[in-house]
Amino acid sequence: MPPLDTAGEREPDLYDWRTAPAHLMTRRQLRAAGLRPGGQQPVAWVPVEWRGRTQYAGLYDSRRAAPKRIATPAQLRAVAKAIREHQARAAERRGYSRAELSRATDPGPGWTDTPATTDQEEPMSDNEFEISHGAAHIEAVQLADELAAAQRDAEIDADDITGYESAEWVMVAQERLDAHLRDHREQLGGDPHWTSYYASLDRAESAPPETAGVPAGHGQRIAHVLAVTAVNQARYGLHQIRASQEAAQRPDSLLATRQLDQQRAFAETRLDRIAWANQWSLAGSLTDALMWHGASDLAATQLDSLRRVFAEQWGVLVDVDELTVSIDPAVDPEARQTYNEAAAVHARQTAILETLDTLPLDQAVKAAAADAIVRWRGEDLDHDPGAYLRDGEQRRAQLAADLDSAGVTGADRERIDFVVDYLTGGGRDIDLLASPVFVDPGQEARGRIPSLLLGFGDGQVSAEQMATEIAVMTPEDQARVREVGTAIRAGQDPDVQLWPGYVDRDQLGREIEALAADVEELAVTADYIADNDISSESPEMWGVDDELGENIARLASRGDRILAAAAGEGLADIERVQVASIVDDVDAGRIRARADLPELVFADERSKRAVDEKRLAATASEVAATVRGRVAEILGETSMATPNMVTLQTGILRDTIASVAFGATAHGVDHERRRYVGQRAKLDDELRRAGVEDEKRQAVRAAIDDTAHRAGVAGQVAADRHQRWGVKVERVAMVRDDHAAQQRAATAGRAKPPDAARGAGLQRACTARIDQSLNGVQSPAPAGIRQLHSMEVDR
Asked: Locations of Low complexity compositional bias (predicted)?
């Protein structure tokens, strides 16, 4: 079929008034004919004098136009509510309260009483006036003119606020005209002038009633807020495009035309590279497609694809003509959310199976473990994704039983169990101190050296701290760091990037936490939009130059940055899998807040130690927290002269007990013991000054001593673990250096390394893999730890 004949080489782009071909119409003419543009861009322009200035009205091809839509009752109610809110706010600005606007008052006797008559006068009868066909037609024409005027104001006014108000009056005028036509159909139904109007009314009334769907579930609500943001940004951008198009019709329009063409070219470039796997970036792609689909075939094609993705996956419907977002009530978002989360879990377990090939295991052990993991993972999710999620613990127990049956034990079993629990987010049950080593501490430190050196130059990191941080590195690496540190101290500005490309786990960890925080913030906004009526909060501007739009833009780029950083040097393979899985979990909705992040993000010894110490701190806090409650319980309703001082001193004593329960790492056990005795005496003095009797003071002291005893026991365990962590890291570095010495000896043709490098249990073949040599290090047995509690603390 040949293309329709529109403005082209034989028809100019600009016409004088009433000189355009008959098939080219303005919006007003299309509406009078019961049509609308249907998403097409103007094919020509006509200058119109309006309010003392020249405006350019677009001409549309009527043969491509679609039937005009009639506002639904729900839309009319929403507009009426917005108008009432607008009028109420205007009244408040003039000193009238909302209560005064709605308060009923007595209009006076003239409104309700029949006036008295004299002998010369007769009261008029209350006969109803039967409106004629001519009167009905005249009033209908007047209402149609009011509607056309409101539409013209809304079409010309590009200002966001006044343009929105003009659109409200369009809906009001449309409602008034429709009501008049319904009431006087008997008089006007046979008039050809009103045929198209009645046809539109009939289509609207015969359409099935709309069911207003409400976004439900995490995934659908996120998709809904992304679509709302895209539509609002597109509407705002279209205002700017129309202004540019008007400027392009002026004599000095060359620059405006070039800018418009450049904007379209940039949008097409972005649309040609849509990152379909990045759901956050689809909001920006949808904005580009909505803005340019009338002027670009690529944008039109991509718009269809984007709308299909939102509709098919989450039931989020985007209306191109009206620029609105609605929910398809036939779609079950909870089922889709469940499937996405189950698919994310299945992907993690598949990654474990792939990671198994990289572990230093015997082939027979690998084969047996692979069979067990395949049975644990399952083949597909289509049967029951919900059951797949619910049965996670049961299937993990079955995996352990299968590994036992296969005879996988010892160090191999520890390595497999750690990988499984670490990559499934179940690391809370892992004894991290006894876990196998996957990362050389010296390689991990390389990524943090730039920030440490910058802190050293600013005085935030002391020389002692620098020495402690680099102690795990090889002698050669330590020498390089010290050389740069010496130059910094001398006032020079050396390059601190000694190992470019190495990952700083601290920085990457902050990026991951920021990703979870952004998702948490977006989820709160999505829930608010879904659960509340925002019609009075300028809903058409949500996502336009505000925090919502910035949040989505951050999400669109942050995940890609995290994945790019994870490809750097210094991360173990299982850490890269973990980081990629976290990004996927955020997209799938398994991680919706920072609290949902895995406890152990990285598998290096420094990160493990930090998590272990966090666990110890939580235990210490739980032990010490009982002090305040037990003291309050004993004192009860006792009337005290200085209760605030008693509460303050109890809190100080609680902090000391918590420090003891954590292992007294800050100042040592002797200091904490003396501090405890002194603060206990101060609390007793405060109780005496407050007028507490001796019996209750003795009970308070007994309760505090009992808590201190339990804190001392917990502190002994904590101090033991602190020391064992230090020994473990030292042994890892020693094994690594021994392995390097053996390699150098083999290179030099020596059969054995130097005697100083030999030690029982530390010899490794020079051809062994670095992770094999590191994994040979076992967690050291408890050394002689000083008792943290004496008779004063451990009573």
From this structure: 742-751
pLDDT for res 127: 43
Q: Which amino acid is at 483?
A: E
Q: How many domains does the chain have?
A: 2
What is the span of the domain harbouring residue 380? Answer: 334-434
Residue 596 neighbours by CB under 8 Å, 6+ apart: 516, 585, 590
**Contact of 415 with 361, CB cutoff 8 Å:** yes
pLDDT digits (tens, 9 = 90+) for 747-782: 877 545 555 444 444 333 333 444 555 555 555 544
Of the three residues 389, 407, 434, the one that is the final residue of a domain is 434
Q: Return the SS3 of 59.
A: strand
Q: Where are the beta strands (DSSP E) in 420-576?
A: none
pLDDT at 44: 85
| Count of helices and strands (H, E) across the chain | 28, 7
Tokens representing residue 547 in the block:
């925090």
Query: Helix %, strand %, coil % for the chain, to 5?
Result: 65, 5, 30
Give dist(CA 470, CA 474) in Å, integer: 8
CA 542 to chain centre: 16
CA–CA dist 49, 33 (Å, integer): 23
Query: Helix, strand, or coil here: 55?
Result: strand
The reply to whether 256 falls in a domain is: no
Q: How far apart are CA 524 and CA 757, in angstroms?
A: 58
Residue 636, token pair as written in the block: 């009860």
pLDDT in tens, 112-128: 555 555 555 555 444 44
C-alpha 212: how far from its chain's center? 26
pTM over 0.90: no
Q: How many residues does the chain have?
A: 795
pLDDT at 192: 81
- Do 216 and 333 contact (CB within 8 A), yes or no? yes
Instruction: Give the contacts of 546 (CB within 8 A, at least 6 positions apart).
Output: none
pLDDT (tens digit, 9 = 90+) per residue, 168-207?
677 778 888 888 888 888 888 888 888 878 887 787 677 5
Residue 643: CB partners within 8 Å, gap ≥ 6? 690
Rounded-to-integer distance, Cα 139 and Cα 128, Å: 18
Alpha carbons 295 and 282: distance in angstroms, whole number: 20
Residue 459 domain flag:
no
Contact (CB, 8 A) for 717 and 788: no
* pLDDT confidence tier of residue 488, bands split at 50, 70 and 90: very high
pLDDT of residue 297: 92
Fill in the DSSP letter of residue 545.
Answer: S
Query: In angstroms, rounded to a whole number, what is the distance separating the alpha carbons of residues 45 and 13?
Result: 6
Measure the CA–CA gap between 163 and 154, rounded to whole angstroms. Answer: 5
| SS3 annotation, 195-239 | HHHHHHHHHHHHCCCCCCCCCCHHHHHHHHHHHHHHHHHHHHHHH
- The pLDDT assigned to 670 comes to 79
| Mean pLDDT estimate for the chain | 82
Residue 745 lies in a domain: yes
Is residue 698 one of the residues assigned to a domain? yes
Rounded CA separation 53/49 (Å): 6
Query: How far is Cα 778 from Cα 760, in angstroms, rounded to an integer?
Result: 13
- The rounded distance, in Å, linking the Cα atoms of 257 and 715 is 74
Q: Look at residues 434, 456, 476 and tell me which one is the last residue of a structural domain.
A: 434
Report the pLDDT value the prediction gives residue 29, as an integer from 0 to 100: 79
The number of C-alpha atoms within 13 Å of 648 and in the hemisphere containing its C-beta is 8
Would residue 570 be called left, alpha or beta, if left means φ above 0 and alpha means ψ between -120 and 50 degrees?
A: left
CB 73 within 8 A of CB 67: no
For 44, the enclosing helix (H) or strand (E) is strand 44-50
Cβ pair 577, 602 in contact under 8 A: no
pLDDT at position 445 over 50: yes
Q: Are 147 and 177 in contact (CB under 8 A)?
A: yes
Measured distance CA(416)–CA(396) in Å, rounded: 13
Alpha-carbon Rg for the chain in angstroms? 38
